[in-house]
Design brief:
Order of helices and strands: HHH
Helix content: over 70%
Oligomer: single chain
Number of strands: 0
Structural class: mainly alpha
Distance between the termini: 14 Å
Strand content: under 5%
Radius of gyration: 13 Å
Length: 60
């Protein structure tokens, strides 16, 4: 998902600017918990998106 990749890179950029010890796992957790919201009328779309996000987070 493109939005996830953009948010991940932005999290890393901000983290390095602030000189924090923000590892990739924490960045992924932060994005999934605090940055991605959505509503869809189609339940299948919701499930596909959830699976896609889960697979994306499992890759790292």
């Amino acid at each position: 998902m493109r939005v996830f990749d953009v948010l991940f890179e932005e999290n890393k950029r901000v983290g390095s600017i602030l000189n924090s010890l923000f590892d990739d796992t924490e960045a992924y957790k932060n994005i999934l918990t605090n940055n991605i919201y959505g509503v869809d009328l189609n339940d299948e779309s919701v499930e596909i998106t959830k699976l896609s996000l889960w697979l994306k987070s499992a890759q790292k």
